[in-house]
Amino acid sequence: MKVSELIVKKKTGGILTKEEIDFLISGYSHDTIPDYQISALLMAICYQGMDEHETSYLTEAMIKSGETINLKAIKGVKVDKHSTGGVGDKTSLVLGPLVASCGVKVAKMSGRGLGHTGGTLDKLEAIPGLSIEKGQADFIAQVQDISLAIIGQTGNLVPADKKLYALRDVTGTVDSIPLISASIMSKKIATGADAILLDVKCGNGAFMKTIEDARTLALTMCKIGKKLNRDTRAIITNMRQPLGLAIGNILEVVEAVETLKGHGPQDLLDLCLDAGAIMLIQAGVIKNKDDGIKMLKEKIASGAAYQKFREMVAHQGGDVSYIDHPEKFKKAKYIIDIKSAQTGYVEEIIAVTLGEVAMKLGAGREKKEDNIDPSAGIVLKEKVGAKVYKGDVIATIHTDKANYQEYIEELKTAFRLKMEQYLSLCREVLLHG
Ligand code: URA
Question: Which of 142, 154, 168, 200 supports an S-S bond with 173, CB 3.0-4.6 Å?
Answer without folding.
Answer: 168
